[in-house]
Amino acid sequence: MGKIGIIIRREFNERVKKKSFIISTILVPVLFIGGIALLIFMQQYTMSEAKLIKVLDRSGMIAQRLEDNASVRFEATDQSYDQFKTDETDAFGYLEIGDDIMERPSVRLSSFKASTVELESSISDQISKIVEEEKLKRYDIENLPQIMEEVKTDVTVQAFQIKESADDKESSSSLAMIAAMFSGLLMFMFVTIYGGMVMQGVIEEKSSKVLEVMVSSVRPYELMMGKILGVALVAITQLLIWAVLVVVVGSVLMQTLMGDMVQAAQAMQSGMPADPMLAAQMSNLDSETAAIINQVTDPGYMTMLLGCFLVFFVGGYLLYAAMFAAIGSAVDNVQDTQQLQTPVTVVLMISYFIMFNVMRDPYSAMAVWGSIIPLTSPIIMMARIAYEPPVWQVVLSAVLLYASFVGMVWFAGKIYRVGIFMYGKKPSFKELFKWVRYKY
Amino acid sequence: MDLLRVEHVTKKYAQHTALDDVSLTIPKGSVYGLLGPNGAGKTTLIRIINRITAPDSGQVWLGDKPIAPQDVYRIGYLPEERGLYKKMKVGEQAIYFAQLKGLSRKEATVRLKEWFVRFQIREWWDKKVEELSKGMAQKVQFIVTILHQPELLIFDEPFSGFDPINANLLKEEILRLRDKGATVIFSTHNMASVEEICDHITLINKSRNILSGPLDEIRHKHGNNIFQVDYRGEESALREAVAGLASVMEGAETESVYNSLKIQIPCNDDVKTAIGRINERVEIRSFREIIPSMNDIFIKAVAGEL
Q1: Angle between helices B164-179 and B134-146 (to 10 degrees)
Q2: Of A33-42, A94-103, B245-254, where does the model show the most confidence?
């Protein structure tokens, strides 16, 4: 076992044995599930509170046709606006519809509290529809309702990607988006949790004064590498435990709820529903969902996606962890890290924003460069990967990412060694770069 | 034979020079004292020997080769600034450091058990370091330093933080290790301990090596030919006897059950004559040279009076 191996072993063992690790491993899924439950509960709670709108309809043809929904309830009234204002009421607002609504399509909504966009658009949609129907009626067309029903159309787009060799494959940008957003978020979470752990680990030797004993036995590079990889193993262990929990619960749910849907989607793509039962179900399944389900169940595609996810996720974590190690190398205690930590987090956030841009246009120059430059590549390449970028770009990006990781660890080691002789002084960025050039 | 040679080592930092053309030779099997006031450059020199930092110019030789990365296995270093991982268990931690110094896990465990028995600290094995007192932790740290049986041991202020009993234990262990063939470099301010255990010293002041050599030789060389005479008889008789050969150190304190006087005999050749004359006039009970203490030499050397 090399020195890095010995260090990894210690870093891993010490962390996994900690109470805080065991507690967070159990607590996070509990909080996660609890959070979702709370969200559902809150949604139901707010839904029961439908807003009451009193409607003064001078035209006499709108009020009775307004439909209540979960968030709003309408009630016709003959109260004047002034009466409504003085009247002690629990109504949310007062809607005034003029008798010239057909000519001048405008209504007036007054409320004690500010109204919401959702409410306004709901009122606007409903009244527009009613007015449109009324206008159509004036043309005296026979069988109007029937005609309206017949012309109603909703076009869905089934996207296919052209392949030279194999059959055209249905592709879904939704899955790509979900994968990219998920990996971006996960990366953000990982870097903040485990990056911080690496940073504190690097400071540990200084605060417990083990520093000089350590550097007389190992090179700072080995120490940094051992810490970063040790914490990575901790992260993987924790993630695996969480994943097992989610998969066990998830697969039970999927089996019971989604089994039929998977079959339906496959039938839809092959174009001929095998049995009439499925065909019926198919119409309920929009093609986007079908495409996603097809991709998820396609082993080749999923292997590619997961493979890239692993390569870039791990690479991204390692690079950012190495940056945190460099920060830890430069300071003596945790309090001094804030100033140096911010730029790292900002870069990560910028990558995340660029990602949304990339999803809109995965072949733009920004997307290509962002997916190759190491600091942004782990997040942005993931956003592009589902759009199948040229292989050389993926390979180049991965190579650059891992090379810069090793470079960053070297840089951190360099700062670490110089920092030994600078007890108690907070370094500026300028000094840090001077340190790197030092012959120690 | 020399184990370690430091040749013309210079090390500059941005603001100051830590070491200025320092050379010294450390004989194999010696206990070598590295002395000097605070900030003289001792720790920098030790760090250079440990390859924690590199000299700007000059070279360090271990045996007959320039010192190399794998030589960390041959060196045991107890820095002045020392500590252990607080949350880690004592035994596990000792094994960890031993592994980093090239021992296998198994070998480290066997050796550690022996040492823990020897130091009577077996019951600490599964304790966390934060549960130990500072002195206890120091003992563990000492074991960790020497466990891989290095040829060269470097102790930077080893006795700070030890009570007299444990300091003595440590002293004995250091001498025992020397007897088994290890070479010890020993940096300290404590001159009494230097006299007790060092056989060679180097005194570094203001980044330079100002005094170097075997301890006895240095002490004799810096003696000022002052002798203490314990006698029975008249003081005036003695004063008359040495007149012209030696000067009496007036008011110098002496401790003796007899009459006693300190005299300085500037010329070595006159010592025999002086003794003869004194012998004729008074009854000599003892006649011995006053060899300066390391403390005196240190203070004088640093003040530039040598």
Answers
A1: 0
A2: A94-103
B97 reaches A (C-beta below 8 A) = yes
* Distance from C-alpha of B241 to C-alpha of B300, rounded to nearest angstrom: 32
Q: Which fold has domain B224-290?
A: Alpha-Beta Plaits (3.30.70)
Dihedral-angle region of residue A156 (phi above 0 means left; psi in -120 to 50 means alpha; beta otherwise): beta
Q: Can you say whether the dihedral through the CA atoms of A290, A292, A297, A298 is positive or negative?
A: positive
8 A C-beta contact, residue A228 and residue A409: yes
How far apart are the CA of A208 and the nearest CA of chain B, in angstroms?
6
Per domain, the residue ranges of chain B are 2-219, 224-290
> Chain A contacts of B69, Cβ < 8 Å?
219
CA-to-CA dists, residue B217 to A324, A361, B28, B200, angstroms? 55, 84, 18, 9
Residue A424 confidence (pLDDT): 46
Give the whole-angstrom CA distance, residue A388 versus residue B257. Answer: 102
Q: Are residues A279 and A371 in the same domain?
A: yes
CA dihedral B248, B253, B259, B264 (to 10 degrees): -30
Distance CA A265, CA A293 (A): 7
Nearest by CB to residue B85, choosing from A18, A210, A212, is A210
Q: How many domains does chain A have?
A: 2
Give A10→chain B minimum CA distance, Å: 8
Rg of chain A over CA atoms, in angstroms? 30
Residue carrying structure tokens 């430091």: B6
Q: Which of A213, A218, A219 sits opposite B79 (nearest CB)?
A: A213
Residue whose tokens read 């004036």: A138
pTM attached to this predicted model: 0.72
Question: Could you give the percent of chain A with pLDDT greater than 90?
Answer: 10
| CATH class name, domain B2-219 | alpha beta
Distance in Å, alpha carbon of B8 to nearest chain A alpha carbon: 17
Task: Select the residue from B52, B97, B144 to test the A interface by mutation, using most A Cβ atoms within 10 A.
Answer: B52
Chain position carrying tokens 């440590």:
B170
Query: Of B75, B77, B84, which has the smallest distance from its Cβ to A210's Cβ?
Result: B84
CB A280 within 8 A of CB A263: no
**Single-letter amino acid code for the residue at A428:** S
ipTM: 0.79
Domain of A120, in residue numbers: 48-133
Q: Compare all CA atoms of chain A with the CA of B128 and give the residue at the minimum distance.
A: A14
SS3 A268: helix
Distances (CA, A) of B151 to A56, A151, B140, B171, B186: 100, 95, 20, 17, 14
**Interface residues on A facing B, Cβ-Cβ cutoff 8 A:** 1, 3, 6-7, 10, 14, 18, 204, 208-219, 417, 420-421, 439-440
Q: Are residues A94 and A217 in the same domain?
A: no
Chain B interface test: which of A210, A214, A332, A422 (most B C-beta within 10 Å): A210
Task: Give the integer Cα–Cα distance in Å for A73 and B261.
Answer: 118
Residue A252 and residue A126 share a domain: no
User: Which of residues A73, A107, A133 is at a domain's end?
Assistant: A133
Q: How confident is the model at residue B182 (pLDDT cuts 50, 70, 90)?
A: very high
C-alpha to C-alpha distance for A62 and A64, rounded to whole angstroms: 6
Domain co-membership, A306 together with A430:
yes
